[in-house]
Design a protein that fits this description.
This protein is an alpha/beta fold. The protein contains eight helices and 15 strands.
């Protein structure tokens, strides 16, 4: 079994930490981001990896900057066999990549070199990919550019949101990580370089990135809605206020109205003209309301036909 320093922060990473412990690896240090304020109340919240580490009684370290001399010295002082990184949230400096004989093994939520970067799950859905997965890789100084170690694939279902896909990949990741470390211990890993010509990038998403562009096709917008669910949430504007859209269905009929025009309002759906086809909105939320099916929403929200979403 290996002596491991684990670096990770969000919900996606916590099962990997638990999987390492269950497999018998010795976790000499868990490194995660500092507690930070969240939500409307801005209450300080511990990252999920900290919660998992505390539950298992593991030593914890929450540096503000992983690049600091103190952070590097603290990790190097553990004399680990390998660093394991899963959605840590900061780039590791070059000195950290060489502190362990096994280097740094990263668990990434895509089939590299597709969707390098911080939001691979959301962008795989938004870009209407049919398959994604988990990749373990040997980290280098680039952003998800290191040699591939092992992969595990899963189909992206037509009904998948970023949330459902996240949960499936989160459950897949620990087994692939354990297989990777077992192969490392036995000297059976065969790293293979990534083909940079096939690389795509998955940039970080921010709250404002959920704005719907009605000039796109209905199919692209529907995928965008699923990819932005649950965060940051796809939205449009009506009378200057946000309307969040959680579920929709693309329809092939071509309306004569400009993109963003509400062409039909019924309990079955709110139908909106797009750049190609019509989008039937099935679930949405007004700025001060609750998430509702269209059937309920239209009873309490004034939305005449021929109104324009922006």
């Amino acid at each position: 079994m290996l002596k491991v320093v684990f670096l990770g922060t969000p919900e996606f990473a916590a099962p990997c930490l638990r999987g390492l412990v269950e497999a018998g690896h010795r976790i000499c240090l868990v490194v995660t981001q500092p507690d930070r304020p969240k939500g409307r109340g801005r209450k300080t919240v511990a990252p999920p990896v900290k919660t998992a580490a505390d539950e298992m009684g593991l030593p914890l370290f929450q540096p503000v900057a992983i690049r600091s001399d103190d952070a590097i010295a603290r990790i190097a002082g553990q004399s680990p066999d390998v660093l394991v990184v899963a959605a840590f949230g900061q780039l590791l400096p070059e000195p950290l990549l060489t502190v362990a004989p096994g280097g740094a093994v990263n668990v990434h939520a895509s089939l590299l070199p597709r969707f390098r970067g911080p939001a691979p799950i959301q962008w795989a859905v938004i870009r209407r990919e049919t398959e994604t997965g988990i990749t373990t890789m040997q980290m280098d100084t680039g952003i998800d550019t290191g040699d591939i170690l092992l992969t595990a694939a899963t189909a992206i279902q037509r009904t998948d949101t970023a949330g459902t896909l996240h949960d499936r990949l989160k459950d897949m990741a620990p087994a692939l990580l354990i297989r990777t470390l077992e192969a490392m211990e036995k000297g059976r890993l065969k790293p293979r370089p990534q083909d940079d010509s096939l690389a795509t990038y998955a940039p970080l998403l921010r709250k404002g990135d959920g704005l719907i562009d009605w000039r796109q096709s209905a199919g692209d917008i529907e995928a965008f809605v699923r990819g932005m669910n649950p965060w940051p949430g796809a939205f449009t504007r009506h009378e200057g206020k946000r309307l969040k859209i959680f579920a929709a269905r693309p329809e092939p009929d071509e309306p004569s109205a400009p993109p963003g025009t509400v062409v039909e309002v019924s309990e079955a759906a709110i139908r909106v003209a797009t750049g190609k086809g019509t989008l039937a909105v099935l679930e949405l939320q007004a700025a001060s309301g609750k998430r509702q099916a269209t059937e309920t929403f239209v009873r309490g929200y004034r939305l005449p036909e021929n109104e324009k979403f922006h």
